[in-house]
Amino acid sequence: MSAPAEGARVAERVVAWQATHGRNHLPWQQTRDPYRVWLSEIMLQQTQVSTVLDYYAQFLARFPDVIALANAPQDEVMGLWSGLGYYSRARNLHRCAQQVVADHGGLFPRSAEVLATLPGIGRSTAGAIAAFCFSERVPILDANVRRVLTRLLGFDKDMASVANERLLWGMADSLLPTQDLAQAMPRYTQGLMDLGASICTPRAPRCSDCPLMESCKALADGDPERYPVRTRKLVRRSESWQLVILCDGLGRVWLQRRPPTGIWAGMHCVPVFPGDAECAAFVESLGDPSQYLQEELPAFLHVLTHRDLHLHPILISGDFAGDALGDGEWLGPDQWPSVGLPAPIRKLLDATQARLW
After folding, report:
1. Which terminus of the chain is more solvent-facing, meaning fewer CB atoms within 10 Å of its CB: N or C?
2. How confident is the model at residue 286 (pLDDT cuts 50, 70, 90)?
């Protein structure tokens, strides 16, 4: 059978399988509104569907369209995002909404090529939006789809190479549906995502349930789990941070904005120090220690994609001179939801509030 014919069969099988076995109940699947699809695609990056569902509903309730999101203060956007992690997504989300309004009249571009020029929208996300909303014949290559296609094709080239990634994009393009694109492109795109999420999993793939098993070269070779091939491994790092929770007599906590780059960039946070010496110097700068109470709270681990943060919080309560604290502001528990707080900091403050009040 020729390569085009085999590609057509792959597309047909994926489309048919998705219609009967794929996910068809999710809220963003019930619309072709690019704003809602875009919002779901950004939230779903590195985040499970079960987690996204509540956040998706909350965002739409507060920001029903791209204009409402573009006009919102960034702190409010970050506040609603708090807990989803990967906070650069929220900053880019806000910037993208503003650019759609400013440069495109509040209407998302209809082509993947133009969508990919917007903040936070890479080639795969642009392809997903264009396929779902406008039935454009373009491929996607997120982590799940990359795994499905490398196994299907027996693509054993190193995915750490940009040239090999580009080659796989071309092969993905050759497998796209060619007929009835209005219905086939959304279903095919969703079908590849669903296969990667539920069937073609990283470990112990359910090959016997896969509609592509007859064509899968990795299965024929007997070792699907070796795909995709990537030689460059991510190196995990561990860091130890000291957190100082300053609580005044009104029950407010001193929060500062994090630097614009790095972990929790641009978010509100308690003072953070990379070592004991820096933390001790800050505590000493607060003045007479007889004027406040100091308590070490239990240390805990916060795991990021490439880093383990060992967090050591100290609670200091009393009266403090704001001028000595530098840039920041006192915020009470009723104000925390309206600002962007990293999830571990929000949990820590909630636990601290329960201890004090």
Report:
1. C
2. confident
Burial of 36 (0-12, 13-18, 19+ CB in 10 A): buried
Q: Are 94 and 7 in contact (CB under 8 A)?
A: no
Strand 307-318 and strand 300-303: the pairing is antiparallel
Residue 152 near residue 191, CB atoms below 8 Å: no
In DSSP terms, which residues pair with 242 in a beta bridge? 273, 312
Let me know: does 253 contact 318? Beta carbons within 8 Å.
Answer: no
| Measured CA distances, 182 to 175, 186, 223, 307 (Å) | 16, 7, 36, 43
296 is catalytic: no
Evaluate whether 139 touches 133 at the Cβ level (below 8 Å): no
* DSSP assignment letter at 86: -
Block residue for tokens 């949990």? 347
Q: Which residues contact 243 (CB under 8 A, 6 or more apart)?
A: 270, 271, 272, 311, 312, 313, 314, 345, 348
Q: Which tokens sit at 74?
A: 């960034």
- How many Å apart are CA 128 and CA 38, to the nearest integer? 9
CB 230 within 8 A of CB 58: no
Query: For 50-67, what is each residue's pLDDT tens digit?
Result: 999 999 999 999 999 999
Among residues 12, 41, 278, 284, the one annotated as catalytic is 41
Per the document, the length of the chain is 357
pTM value is 0.80
Nearest-10 crossing angle of helices 49-62, 74-81 = 150
CA 282-299-77 angle, to 5 degrees, is: 75
